Amino acid sequence: MTGVSRARRGLLWLGAVVAVAVSLGLLALIVMRDLNTASLAASVVGAIAGIAGAAFAAIALLRNPDAGSAAGTRRVWAGEGGIAAGGDITGNAFGTNSTVKVSGSRRRGAAQPDQSHRDVKAGRDGIVAGGDITGNAIGEGGRIE
Fold this sequence. Notes:
Blueprint: H1 6-32, H2 35-63, E1 76-78, E2 83-85, E3 89-90, E4 93-94, E5 99-100, E6 120-122, E7 127-129, E8 133-134, E9 137-138, E10 143-144
Parallel strand pairs: 1-6, 2-7, 3-8, 4-9, 5-10
Helix pairs in contact: 1-2
């Protein structure tokens, strides 16, 4: 469960324990009472679980509206003064008196696995790229020859 916070991991385990406890309770109801009583109880538990599942799905979609978007899409955001690119940022001059001289073909960065499904977001005054950032003159008087 990499990437899952400790609190969420605890909630997942709690859900698993509750599910096992409910299953054992229904099994005990079958043994101690009769099948009809257990069937009625299972119907109620199933309805509650279905409603809870629908509520959790709705909450998840409201918290992350991009969850249902098509695979392979990428959104690019830039905050105030920020620079964001969905791909590579190569051979650019940012800032007063900055220059970039490109001679011949520039070597592109190492091949990366396709990450087109990842969003790119630059905060205020930040610089971010979905690919490589190479060969750029950034700041006042920066030079790339």
